[in-house]
């Protein structure tokens, strides 16, 4: 039973890490997109 519990906990940790990583990637590309848009449309008020 202990092993199953540990595996479940580990699985949740892995999911959390993957979520954090994809969030960081999303945030970075979102910021890059905003910067790109501001360059193309200088009068864009964000």
TrEMBL record:
Q: What top-level branch of life does the organism fall under? A: Eukaryota
Q: What is this protein called?
A: 8089_t:CDS:1
| Record organism | Racocetra fulgida
Q: What is the lineage of its organism?
A: Eukaryota, Fungi, Fungi incertae sedis, Mucoromycota, Glomeromycotina
């Amino acid at each position: 039973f202990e092993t199953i519990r540990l595996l479940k906990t580990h699985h949740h940790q892995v999911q959390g890490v993957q979520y954090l990583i994809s969030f960081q990637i999303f945030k970075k590309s979102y910021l890059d997109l905003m910067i790109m848009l501001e360059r193309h449309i200088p009068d864009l008020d964000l």
